[in-house]
Amino acid sequence: MIMPLLKGLGITLSHLFKKPVTLQYPDEMPEVAPRFRGLHALNISHDKAKCVACYLCPTVCPAKCIKVEAGEDENHNKYAAEYEIDMLRCIFCGYCVEACPVDAVRMTQTFELANYKRADFVFTKDRLLEKK
Amino acid sequence: MSNAPAEELQTQEIDLTAANQVIDKFLTLPGNLMPVLQGIQEEYGYVPKPTIDLVAERLNVYPSQIYGVLTFYAQFHLKPRGKFIIRVCVGTACHVQGAERIVETFFDKLHIGHAETTPDLRFTFEKVACLGACGMAPLAMVNDDTFGKMTVQKVEEIVADYGQRPMK
Amino acid sequence: MVNLTIDDKKVTVPKDATIYDAAKSAGIRIPILCHDKKLHPFGGCRMCLVEVEQMKGRLIPACTTPVTEGMIVKTTTPEIINARKLVLELLLLKHPVDCPVCDAAGDCDLQNLTYEYKVNTNQFTDEKFNHKIDYENPLIERDMNRCIHCGKCARICDEIVSFGAYTFINRGIEAKMGTEFDGPLNCEFCGSCVSVCPVGALVSRPFKFKARWWSLNKVKSVCSYCGTGCQLTLGVKGNKVLTTVYDENQGFHNGQLCTRGRFGYQFVNSDKRLSTPLVRKNGRLEPATWDEALAAVAEGLKSAGSDAVAGLVSPRLTNEELYLARKLFKDVLGSNNLDHSAGYAHSALSHGAMESLGFAASPSTVTDIQKSDLLLVVKTDAYETHPVLGFEINLGVKRKGVDLRVISDKKGKLSRLPKAKTYVYKPGNEILLVNALAKVIVDNNLTDPSAMGVAGLEEYNKSLEGYSPAQAAEVCGIAAEEIIGLATDYAKADKALILLPLGLGYPGHDKALAQALINLALVAGKIGKEGSGVLIMGEKNNSQGAVDMGVYPAGNGKGATDIIASCAAGATKALYVVGENPVVSYPNRKKVADALDKVGFLVVQDLFLTETAEKAHVVLPACSFAEKDGTFTSVGRMVQRVRKAIKPIGASRSDFDILNELSSRLGGASFADSSQVFVEIAREVAGYNGLTYDKLGDEGALVPVAVKGRFVPVAASPVKAEAGKYALVTGSALYHCGTMSRFGQGPMHVCPEGYAEFSREDAAVLKIQDNDLVKLTSAGAEINLKAKVNMRMPKGVVFAPYHFGEESINNITDGSPVTWVAVSK
User: Hey, which chains touch C, using 3+ CB pairs under 8 Å?
Assistant: First the structure.
C-alpha cells in the first residue's frame, strides 16, 4: 500500500533534479527546427520580390489561401502586383514553397501568429516582404 | 540578305519607271516574282523598298512574302551596294594561310564590317566561304579581279588603287 | 475509301485523308505542333513521325502523308518516341523556357509534349535567341524568342485571313517569323495568329498576365457583334470576362474569330457600365432604386395610351427578350409601334424577303458559301460587315475555286483575292444594275425553266424594259460587255449565291434591293438549291431573331422613321428605347436628337449612358450577353445558345428581368426564366416549333424555311450627281459593329475615331494626305474627319464609318443611300 505511493513520490522527486520538459514561454523561446514551416516570407533579389506571379502557389494550395494578381512593369515584365496569404486558412503544408519555380517564397520559423482582428491574419505582399 | 531594321533603310526618292518596265516584262509569266526581283536588282543594284511595295501591288503578292524571299536568297540586297565589291575568302585553306588578318586589315582600312558598304558607296566588303582557288590562298576578289597570296601590304595597295578609280 | 491499319486497329477513311486524319478518326492521338485542321499540311515540326510497314527505313510525317490501301502504321515504337524526344530537345535548345511568366503556360503544346515525353535533360547546349520583342501594338505581343517556327501564324494569315502579315524571314539559324522589313506588326488584328500559336510567341496583350489558362472558367456562348453567329468561348474569372478562348471545334468557322469577337469583349466589364437605375429629377439624372424606376416606367408607358407609346428595341437582345418586348407592346400596352435598326436595316428581310419568298429570312445558309460556284457580293465585299463570313469567302475562293464577283461602290479587301472581279458602279445605282443583270438573262433566253412557274414572271419581264445593259452601263459607269458577262456567268453557274449585307450604315440595302436580288436569283433559278440562293446578312448578332420575333411594325403600327417623326410632332408621348442608340446610329442626327428631346417620357434601357440615354427621363441599366441565358439567331437562320458567364454587373438586370417585371407590373404575363419564354416561342413562332434548349445543344439548330417565291418588280431611277460634290457612302469599319464596340478596348485601340476614305486621284486634287483633317459639308451641317487615302475608293466617292459619337457621320446624312457632300481641307 505504501510502496506505490513512495514510488510515485520518488518519480516526482527525481524530476526536481532533471531539466524541465516545459518551456517558460514567452520568457523562454523554443528552439525551432530548421525545416519548421512557419509564417511565409517572400524572397528578395536586387531589391525586388523574386516572385514572377506565375500563379503556381495559388494553384497548388490545398486550402486556397493564396491570392496573386499579376502586373506588368515598365519593362513589360511580370511581377506580383498583389500577393496575399490568409493565415486563417493556411494549413502550413509548404506546397507553395515546393511549387515555386523561382524560389520566391519560403517559410520562416515564425510561429507566433496570434492577432486581435481577423483582417490582421491576411498577410499582404508588404508584410510578407518584411520578414527578412 | 542584310538584316537591317526598317528605319536604317534609305528613304530616298526612287524612280520607279525601270521597276515598272521590269514588271511589265514578266507580268504574265507564272512564278514571276524571282525574275522580277532579279531584274529590279539588276537595274538598281539592290532592291529598294518602294519597289517592293510596287511589286506587291502589281503582282498581288503580300509585301511580307516578298521580304521573306529577299532575305532568304543571298543574291538579293536591300541596301545600296558599293561600286567595288571586295570578297575575301575565309574558307579552310585561306583560313590556315591567315585570311583573318586580311579581313581585319580591310575592316581597319575601310572602317566597315562584314556585309557593309562605305558611306560613299565605293566599297562593299564581304567574307565568303570559298572562291574556288585554294592554291592561291589567302584569296581576295574585287568585282571580277582576283588577288592571290594576299598580304597586309597588298590590302593597302588594293584599297588605294580602287579608291582612286572613277565611280561612273 | 481506303483501308489501313494503325496500331493494330483497322481504319477506313476517304482517300484524300492523311495518316494523321486516319489516326484521329480511329481515336489515336499523334502529337502535332505545326499541324492545324483548318490549314494546309505543312510537315515542318516532325513531331508526328510514324512508322509505316511499307516504307521501312525512315520515319514518315503523318500530317503530310496521304493514306494508301493496306498501309500498316505504328505510332508509338521506341524509335518514334526517341525521334520525337530529339525534336523536342532541339526545340527546347533555343526556347527560353520562361513558362512561369508566359501566358501560354497550361495551354502550350510544347509544354504539354515536353511533359508527356519526359524531356527533362538536353544533350545539346546553345545560346538562346535574343530577338527584340514587339510591344508596338496594343493587341498582339510578339516574342520571337519563344517561336518554334511552326509557321501556323503565317499560314492562317495567308490562307484564311488573306492579309499576309507574316512570313519566314532570313535563313538557317537566323530564320524567324517576321513582318515586312521586320518592322512592328501592322495588320487588321483579328488575332487568328494568336489563337493558333502553339507556344507563347504570340500572345494577346489585353489578356496579358490577367490570369493563368487553367484558372479560367470557360463558358461557351455566341459573339454579340455582327450577325454571323460565331460561337465563342469566354474565359471567365472572378465575375470578369477576361478573354476569349480559342476552341477549334466550335461552329462552322472552327473557332475562327475577327478582331471584334476576339478583342472586343471588354465592354462587358467596362468601368462605364451603368450600375444603378437613373431617374431624372430637377433636370438631372439621379440614381434611384429599381422599384422607383420601374414604377415610373410602368406609369409613364401606361398613361401615354396605346397610340402614343412606341418602342425601339435593339436586335442585340436575345430571342426571348425580343419576344417579351413584342408581347409587352402588343398584348399589354396594346401598341404596334415597335421597331428596330431604324427600320431600313431590317426591311430587306422583314418586307423584302417576306413578300418575295414568303418568309422573312434568307433562303440560304452560311455553309452555302463554300459550296457555291459563283458568289455575287453586293454593295460591300461583306468583309467589313461580317468579317468571319469574309474568311469563308476567302476559303471558298482559295480552296474550292469559287468565282467571286463583287458589285460595289468601292473596292474591298476581298477584291484582291486571286481571280476575284470587282465591278465598281456609281454610288446609289445598285438596283438599276441588278435589274440590268436580270434583263440580260431574260433577253438572252437564260431564264431558268424553274422560273416559268413562278408568279409574276411576265409582269417582271415587262418591268425590265428600260434597264438594258447599255443604259445601265451609262448610269453605273460599268461597260455594257461587263454587265452582260457578269449576268451570263451568273446565270450559267451551276450554283450561285448572292450575298447582301445589311446595316444601319447602309441605308440603300433595303426592301427594294433585296427584292431586285431575289428576282435575279429567281429568274436564274438559283433559289432552293444547295450552294445557291440569296444570303441576306443582318447587321447585329440577333437581327434575324428580331425579325423572327416580329419586332417590327405590324398592321397600323409605326416604323422607326415614323416613330421619330411622331416624336417630333408630339404624337408619341412615351418612347421606350431598349439597347438602341438612335442619336448616333440613325441618319440625320439633328432630327433624331430634336425628336427625342420632345418626347414627354423617354425610357432608355442600355449597358452604358449613351448619347440617347443622356436625354432619357428614366435610364435602366441592362446586362450584356455574357450575363444572360437565351438564344441568338444568326444570318444563316441558326438558333444558338447564349450562356450566362458572369453575374450581372452592379445593380444591373437582364433585359429579360426588366421586361418581365414591367409586364407583370402592367398586368401582363410573367415568366420564371428565359427557358419558359423559349417554350412559348417554340409554340408560337413559325420555324422554331419543337425547339428546346436541350435540342439546341452546342451546335444550335437550323430554322427551316419553305420557299414560295414570286417576282416583285422593282423600279429604279439613276441617282443624280450633284456637280462639284462628292458621293458620301457610309458603312461599317472592319473593327466595329454598331455603337457598342466603342466600349471594347480592342476595337478602340485599333480604330478609335471616325475617318473619311478618299481615292488617290481625289486626294491629289484636294491636296490631302493621310490623317489630314477634312471638312465634309452637307445640308448646312459639317463635320471634320481624318482623311485616309487609298486605292480602294473610286474617284468622286468618299466612305465613312457610322459608329462614332463625336463628329458623327450621321450629322450630315439623311437616310438616302448616297449623301452629296462638299469637301474642303
Answer: A, B
Grid cell for residue C788: 485616309
Rounded Cα–Cα distance for residues C561 and C814 (Å): 11
Q: What is the mean pLDDT of residues B42-58?
A: 90
Is the pLDDT higher at B115 or at C577?
C577
CB C655 within 8 A of CB C620: no
Q: A55: distance to nearest CA of chain C, Å?
A: 7
Q: State how far the alpha carbon of C508 is from the alpha carbons of B158, C62, C541, C731, in Å.
A: 74, 52, 20, 11
Contacts of A71 in chain C (CB under 8 A): 209
pTM: 0.89
Which residue type does B155 have?
V
**Cβ within 8 Å, pair A77-C101:** yes
Angle between helices C109-116 and C78-94 (to 10 degrees): 130
Which of B5, B66, B68 shows the shortest C-beta gap to C168?
B68
Which residues of chain C, if any, have pLDDT below 50?
none
Residues of B in contact with C171 (CB under 8 A): 1, 71-72, 74
Q: Is the Cβ–Cβ distance between C620 and C604 less than 8 Å? A: yes
The reply to whether residue C178 touches residue B3, judged by beta carbons under 8 angstroms, is no
Total domains in chain B come to 2
Domain total for chain C? 5
Q: Which three cell numbers stand for residue C9?
A: 486497329
Q: Which triple of cell numbers denotes residue C35?
A: 499541324
Q: Is C43 left (phi over 0), alpha (psi -120 to 50) or beta?
A: left
Cβ–Cβ of A54/C135 closer than 8 Å?
A: no
In a domain, B102, yes or no: yes
Same domain, B90 and B20: no
Q: Is residue C719 part of a domain?
A: no
Cell numbers 515564425 correspond to: A110
Q: Which domain holds residue C17?
A: 2-76
Q: What are the two backbone dihedrals, phi and then psi, of residue C158, each rounded to the nearest 5 degrees?
A: -85, -55
pLDDT tens-digit readout, C686-731: 899 989 999 999 899 999 999 989 999 999 888 888 888 999 999 9
The last residue of a domain, from among C491, C514, C539: C539
What tens digit of pLDDT does each residue of C494-530 get?
Answer: 999 999 999 999 988 889 999 999 999 999 999 988 9
- The three grid cell numbers given for residue C705, joined into one nine-digit string: 424555311
Query: Is residue A101 within 8 angstroms of chain C, CB to CB?
Result: yes
What is the residue-averaged pLDDT of chain A? 92
Cβ-contact C793, C757 below 8 angstroms: yes
Q: Any contact of B with A, at least 3 CB pairs below 8 A? A: no
Q: Which residues of C touch B68 (CB under 8 A)?
A: 167-169, 178
Contact C626, C221 (CB under 8 A): yes
The Cα diameter of chain A in Å comes to 84
The predicted structure's pLDDT at residue C483: 95
